[in-house]
Amino acid sequence: MRYDGIDLESISNIYPSVLVRHQDVVTTVSMEWYEQNKEQLQLQSYTLIFIDTKGNRIERHYQSYEEMIEAMQEVARLLKK
């Protein structure tokens, strides 16, 4: 079973995050950390981070929170099959 080119059977963890810019640094942070510090950060995108069973990190970026939630719901639907 695949989602956006990702083999979901090889995924051990999925978590939502936010891609942010702070001065010259672009990185992902947790949703909670972003909410606490968003005045100091520039939002780049909402991000789902998939970690596979080998520890590799795969990111998918979304322009809105709603798009990311829809993607999470689709992944959940696929995993329930």
Write a structural description:
The protein is 28% helix and 48% strand. With 81 residues, it is an alpha+beta fold. The protein has one domain (2-80). Strands 4-3-5-6 form a 4-stranded antiparallel β-sheet. The protein has a two-stranded antiparallel ribbon with strand order 1-2. It is elongated and about 40 Å long.
Lay out the secondary structure.
Blueprint: E1 2-3, E2 6-7, E3 11-22, E4 25-30, H1 31-37, E5 42-52, E6 57-62, H2 65-80
Antiparallel strand pairs: 1-2, 3-4, 3-5, 5-6
The SSE string, one letter per element, is: EEEEHEEH
Radius of gyration: 13 Å
Low-confidence stretches: none
Q: What's the assembly state of these chains?
A: single chain
Query: What number is the mean pLDDT?
Result: 96
Q: What order do the strands of the largest sheet run in, or round the barrel if closed?
A: 4-3-5-6
How many helical stretches?
2
Keyword list:
four-stranded antiparallel beta sheet; two-stranded antiparallel ribbon; 2 helices; 28% helix; 48% strand
